[in-house]
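the two lines:
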Amino acid sequence: MSQERFDNGMEDLKQFYNSARPATSSKEIFQSIQQQKGRSSIQRYWPMLAATLGIFVIGGILLGSIISGGGTEMGQSPGSDELPLTTGSDNEHGDGSGVDTGDDQGETTGDHEDATTVEDADSNAESNDNDTNQPLVVDRPETLTKTITLEGMEEQTTYDLYVSEEFGISSYLLEGVDVQIDSSDQRIEKYIHTELFHFSMTEIGTGSDAITEWEAKINETYQSEGFSKASLENDILEGLPVEEHTLWTAESNGYTDQFRHAIFIQGNDTMYFLEAEFTIEMLEGRFPYAVETFIKELEFHQ
Amino acid sequence: MPELNDRVLIQETLRGNDEAFQELIDEYHLTVERFARQIGIREEDLPDVTQEVFIKVYRFLDKYSRGKFTTWLYSVTLNVAKDFFRKQKREKRKLEKTIQENPEQFYQENLDLTEDAKILHETISQMDEKYRIPIVLFYFHDSSIKDIAAIMSMRESSVKTRLKRGKSLLKKSLEEGGYIYEPRAL
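prediction for all of em together
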């Protein structure tokens, strides 16, 4: 068959695709982004608003008690009972949920829903004598750099410190990872990379029964989704320091294309379930190392 | 200088100029839509997928720093589409049906294709995505092998192999009037 016939056919098809009637309108896309933006602004700033209102309420009560001659000495300054999680200078994980007592209103950047502003951490910590209010993590560097070998070439990868007060954990997330939190049923944290790779961690309860119960659940769910158990031997995530670890794979059009890791981790008395899924293309890249680093660097705090 | 213009628009968007982002949408929404359609997104799902791509782009724009904007945009589109397929598979277990039904519907609405183009269209729509995605990017979006490797997070040598196999599948299909031979191993 001539190359010319193939080229002409492909060129015709290209013209045909390019002349297809648009199914989307740029105006509608833009409007939906604006709506989304409005919603996320409210979600992002409501903790700050709530904290500010709280300060006014507490201030009002204090003022009321002083005026009424209660005479009780109140040693704490407003806002000192809510401290940022980390001490550092360039953490990008702020979402404004920390209470800002200074003039600088702690410009919030990034979308991490669980971290707090860092700028005032030192000054707040200095004014606080109560041990229970110390930052959760004080001795871990803000970033971690690792060298990995991809396709025979060494590559420097940077990970950012991530602290979750609710989970009571800290670890390192690959640069560009965003955190979404779902507390509707069970607490789930979803770690999403810019290129849309993600993995998630769920708090599942206490004791080994929690693992047994969840194993039964995932066996049923994964099998119904077309996954079957596979060997972890020689897998990049083999030998992780965890309670239980199984690998599940699924086929697409006759090829093994999806690789799902089901990992149980124990921290203090709590059990966590971590799920990470890779396509075959992802296995050649940085993402398996991102999960490996997150698990290996995981620390649990009281 | 489209790349330079993209960078200017990105910088402007990051400074809070929403009109700049609107310009980026104007410039690229049809590219995203076409690519999504060509890799198997159904006609009725195209608005949702395209919208989701730009929501992700807007959300992660401050973290995007390297490479061509279009390479990143294709990569985001590919991942949103795959996520969409996975969700559908989980919810309805209809992945195969989804991929195969859509191009048929689109094709039936557009009958003014040459016979060869029809065969090629049908073959591409039924190909394994390992071949379909590089073929679509190379032939219909003028992407280089280097760009395809970056979009698919693969080695350039793997892209070349897949393009070569994909092309021979298409040629074979043309020769045999639409018969599709799918190799079972990479």
